[in-house]
Amino acid sequence: EVKLLESGGGLVQPGGSLKLSCAASGFDFSRYWMSWVRQAPGKGLEWIGEINPDSSTINYTPSLKDKFIISRDNAKNTLYLQMSKVRSEDTALYYCAREGVRRGYAMDYWGQGTSVTVSS
Amino acid sequence: DIVLTQSPASLAVSLGQRATISCRASQSVSTSSYSYMHWYQQKPGQPPKLLIKYASNLESGVPARFSGSGSGTDFTLNIHPVEEEDTATYYCQHSWEIPLTFGAGTKLELK
Predict the structure, then answer these.
(1) Residue B13: its pLDDT value, please?
(2) Does residue A80 belong to the interface with chain B, where contact is any CB pair within 8 Å?
(3) Which chain B residues touch A107 with a CB distance below 8 Å?
(4) Buried b / exposed e across B69-100, counting CB within 10 Å, b at 16+?
(5) pLDDT in tens, A24-73
(6) Shortest Cα distance from B36 to chain A (angstroms)?
């Protein structure tokens, strides 16, 4: 059974940093593109970025490219999102999602999300 | 960026009737073989769930009352007959280019 479990969320002060993790199981993590998607309270879905299986290609939505860094450790079956210079607008539920073995696939599995609150 | 415009923003449908949700892309997301448009369902407190991939391909385990159609810039999600459990917000998403984007969502309620 495919499972994605996010962790690392919490309360962070404006301007601070936070690193989220997504532990994957039930599939060959090292073969799949992975994405991060966030959802502000009561709002829609916003794609943050994606990473390919060997980390040689990482794509971001332009507005977040200078704030967030996506990485992965295939040996640990874990995806990461390093957040920096956070602002109140970054308050959201952060999901990791599995894409496919090539770019352009739909996101077929999602975690339950980890909540990030930016506040002083 | 490709902008996905969903309509309506909300709709109320009676049990057993048809729900139709539209998604219009600001540019084509189709080749002669594939349309890079996908549909998701999200219920309150839950992550999105993939319903339809590549415009018209039903994801495994999704009931056949869900169907998708369209190509180029115009896409449609149909639900017929609507059941109580279909109350949710529905999103379209393209994977044509970077950045990936989602539509703003359509909230489906029962009359």
Answers:
(1) 98
(2) no
(3) 38, 40, 48, 50, 93
(4) ebbebebbbebbebeeebbbbbbbbbbbebbb
(5) 999 999 999 999 999 999 999 999 999 999 999 999 999 999 899 999 99
(6) 7
